[in-house]
């Protein structure tokens, strides 16, 4: 989820690239850089932090040329630092490359390249690609063919832009799973990971599809299929987006864009490296007491994880709200305690304070976060990155489903290590994990329109109930949090079975009660809970599994989603509630991207 910009044409490349990078600043980044061909040589400038730092460097040491590539980096492999910032160069400094995405097999590729005496300067997965291109060019290939040869070796996601001092009028591009577009200008062409970078200069766009490579020169833009090398006749799309709309890829708000991005972010979350999963699994297995520690949405992911770990790996864990940890469990923490802290930002003060306390008592700290280099990554014995890219909407959406995806992989891995599941069960779950992006895509498609209508019906209600049993209790918690924080409607979430021990007294005729009821072992009891609520006059809104006639008949409003295994169900069944929160905010005239009184990252206790 970094930003890529490329320019080739008669103008000064540096200023056009800097302008494009500024347009991509909204995505968040930790370092930036550019490479321009100047007098037949590649000149590169990079810096950590804001673009102003890169600008200062350029002012001290200017670069001039008519072709170049730029990048804003959001670290995934290798901490945010100058050496890890893009562009990366080959050994001879004749090729420069920028990359978005995650290369899964980079360690194997790196070893092969090290054997061939390539010298690596960074700890990124990206750098292997530029050395692969160098290898291919050494064997006589031109830049396009060399990038194709390199791309064929990559497993993972990428958007690439590459220049070579030996072909100084050409930017080669390649795409798999990470977006990349070409902007067609007059005697000049542009490339970017996000059309926001150049929309003010041209609205004529070619979107690259997965498995396509291509190149631009000042007057040409050509695209080929990576697999066959055959040329593809691409359509030029005329976009009538404003720069503001372009940043949101045409969506009215970042939150909606991020909800729709989830098939992609879940795919990225499935690329967590095995060795980190193994390491964390090892520590979880050794713990006497295992706590899952988090705040906000990340806490809801921990509640779901406690069901996953117990059901699959037979490991009992305690999900704890970070700000309560020290008071509640502080005295019981010791050398046998393992804490898995889950924090999108890796900076939440409540989480860090609890960890600090536990660390002083010799507990083992593990982390799951979206931000490399965050405090959580520095204080954890081992950590996993969820690869979601920056999330701009304050309310977490895509980072929640990505957390769940990583946590499910952990639970499965631990189950295998402990021998708690049969091989066929492991295989089935692995297949389902792979299918999650499609299931989520389907859930978004099914839900969006009916939920939009529903938001009109519900916008004036005084409060809403969300009920679920088993792991769907975690989904109910997240549904409640999303709807409440965005619509400002007070909401209640309860385990469906517990609702009769108090909350049911609130119910009066017409009171809206949502049931999250995918088909799983709790379904029969959930039907009982539906009946209890109906008997008191509640209006029943139910999200269940396709074909569940009995539940449908007992609901006043019904939405059915695809079948999915119990432990993965929150990933799919939370989707309609993210959309409900979004549409309610819009209906009520609130800004879904910036709910009042809330911050994306809360760094005070
Ligand atoms: C804030 C945000 C929430 C987030 C919580 C925890 O309250 O508004 O969306 O879930 O912090 O953040 P973390 O970065 O630790 O996951």
Description:
The chain is an alpha/beta fold and 605 residues long. It has three domains: 243 residues, Glutamine Phosphoribosylpyrophosphate, subunit 1, domain 1, CATH 3.60.20; 171 residues, Rossmann fold (3-Layer(aba) Sandwich), CATH 3.40.50.10490; 148 residues, Rossmann fold (3-Layer(aba) Sandwich). Helices cover 40% and strands 22% of the residues. It contains 20 helices and 25 strands. The strands form four sheets. The protein has an eight-stranded antiparallel β-sheet, covered by helices on one side. It has a seven-stranded antiparallel β-sheet with strand order 5-6-7-8-12-13-14, covered by helices on one side. A five-stranded parallel β-sheet has the order 17-16-18-19-20, sandwiched between helices. The chain is globular and about 80 Å long. The protein starts with a strand and ends in an 18-residue tail after the last helix. The site of 6-O-phosphono-alpha-D-glucopyranose (G6P) has 17 residues, from helix 10.
């Amino acid at each position: 989820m970094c930003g890529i910009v490329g320019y080739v044409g008669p103008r000064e490349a540096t200023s056009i690239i800097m302008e494009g990078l500024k347009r991509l600043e909204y995505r968040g980044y930790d370092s930036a850089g550019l490479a321009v061909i100047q007098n037949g040589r590649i000149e590169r400038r990079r810096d950590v932090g804001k673009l102003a730092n890169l600008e200062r460097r350029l002012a001290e040491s200017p670069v001039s040329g008519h072709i170049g590539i730029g990048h804003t980096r959001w670290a995934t492999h290798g901490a945010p630092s100058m050496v890890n910032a893009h562009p990366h160069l080959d050994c001879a400094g004749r090729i420069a490359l920028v990359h978005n995405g995650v290369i899964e097999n980079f360690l194997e590729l790196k070893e092969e390249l090290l054997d061939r005496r390539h010298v690596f300067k960074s700890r990124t997965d990206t750098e292997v690609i530029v050395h692969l291109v160098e290898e291919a060019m050494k064997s006589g290939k031109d830049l396009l063919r060399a990038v194709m040869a390199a791309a064929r070796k990559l497993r993972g996601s990428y958007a690439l832009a590459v220049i070579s001092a030996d072909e100084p009028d050409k930017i080669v591009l390649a795409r798999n799973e990470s977006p990349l577009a070409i902007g067609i200008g007059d005697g000049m062409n542009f490339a970017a990971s996000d059309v926001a970078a150049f929309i003010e200069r041209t609205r004529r766009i070619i979107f690259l599809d997965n498995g396509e490579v291509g190149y631009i020169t000042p007057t040409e833009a050509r695209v080929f299929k990576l697999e066959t090398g055959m040329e593809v006749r691409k359509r030029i799309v005329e976009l009538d987006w404003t720069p503001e709309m372009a940043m949101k890829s045409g969506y009215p708000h970042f939150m909606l864009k991020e909800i729709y991005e989830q098939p992609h972010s879940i795919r990225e979350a499935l690329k967590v490296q095995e060795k980190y999963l193994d390491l964390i699994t090892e520590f979880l297995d050794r713990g006497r007491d295992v706590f899952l520690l988090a705040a906000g949405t990340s806490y809801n992911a921990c509640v779901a994880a406690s069901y996953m770990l117990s059901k699959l790996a037979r490991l009992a864990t305690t999900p704890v709200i970070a700000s309560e940890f020290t008071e509640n469990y502080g005295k019981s923490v010791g050398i046998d305690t393992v804490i898995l802290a889950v924090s999108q930002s890796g900076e939440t003060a409540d989480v860090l304070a609890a960890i600090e306390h536990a660390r002083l008592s010799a507990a083992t700290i593990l982390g799951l976060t979206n931000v490399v280099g965050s405090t959580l990554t520095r204080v954890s014995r081992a950590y996993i990155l969820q690869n979601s890219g920056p999330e701009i909407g304050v309310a977490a959406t895509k980072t929640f489903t990505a957390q769940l995806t990583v946590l499910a992989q952990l639970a499965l891995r631990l189950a295998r290590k402990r021998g708690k599941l049969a091989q066929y069960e492991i295989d089935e779950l692995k297949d389902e994990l792979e299918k999650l992006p499609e299931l989520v895509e389907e859930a978004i498609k099914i839900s969006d329109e009916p939920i939009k209508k529903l938001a009109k019906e519900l916008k004036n209600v005084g409060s809403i109930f969300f009920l679920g049993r088993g792991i769907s209790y975690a989904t109910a918690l997240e549904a409640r949090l999303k709807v409440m924080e965005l619509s400002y409607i007070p909401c209640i979430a309860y385990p469906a079975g517990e609702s009769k021990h108090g909350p049911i007294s609130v119910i009066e005729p017409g009171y809206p009660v949502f049931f999250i009821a995918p088909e799983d072992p709790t379904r029969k009891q959930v039907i009982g809970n539906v009946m209890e609520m109906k008997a008191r006059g509640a209006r029943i809104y139910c999200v269940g599994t396709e074909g569940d006639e009995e539940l449908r008949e007992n609901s006043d409003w019904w939405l059915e989603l695809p079948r999915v295994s119990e432990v993965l169900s929150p990933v799919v069944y939370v989707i309609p509630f993210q959309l409900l929160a979004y549409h309610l905010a819009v209906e009520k005239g609130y800004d879904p991207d910036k709910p009042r009184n809330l911050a994306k990252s809360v760094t005070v206790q």
